[in-house]
Amino acid sequence: MAKQSRDAEFTAYVASRAGWLRKVAYLLSSDWHRADDLVQESITKLYTNWARAARAENLDGYARTVLVNTFLAEQRSSWRRRTRTSAQTPDGVTAGTDLDVSMDLRQALAALPPKQRATVVLRYYCDLSVEQTAEAMGCSSGNVKSQSSRALGALRVSAALRVAGGFEG
């Protein structure tokens, strides 16, 4: 009976937060298919450790940390280095002002190294503090600050090149 209750609690949590996890995973990976894989792997890890996760003070933070750690671990694996994803946009995408801006941002975000990308997503999309981001990434606050600074600098350069017409994306 306790396992059924645990499973129902887990299922309810995942059903309510899967869309949010998928958006965060997409911002990290820049690929919807890969985002789905990251979410699936993270949900599996979350289920395995549900007893601990359910006791966490901030369950969303716990799930987000699992997702980011899964992404960063994948980046370090040799499988990821051998696999290439397509940089082409899907055929059904039409051009528009808002779409162009969001695609430019996604391309610039995708060009960042994994830790810088994770830092930007956690700090500016998930709206975490420096300390919360450091905790989620398992590093120091100083590391988060330097990763954020480098990432924002790279994004500014990318934007400046785009405005100057020197960026062919």
Automatic annotation (TrEMBL):
Belongs to the sigma-70 factor family. ECF subfamily. Pfam families: Sigma70_r2, Sigma70_r4_2. The keyword ATP-binding does not apply. Gene3D superfamilies: 1.10.1740.10, Winged helix-like DNA-binding domain superfamily/Winged helix DNA-binding domain. Residues 103-155 form the RNA polymerase sigma factor 70 region 4 type domain. This is SigE family RNA polymerase sigma factor. It comes from the Bacteria. Keywords: DNA-binding, Sigma factor, Transcription, Transcription regulation.
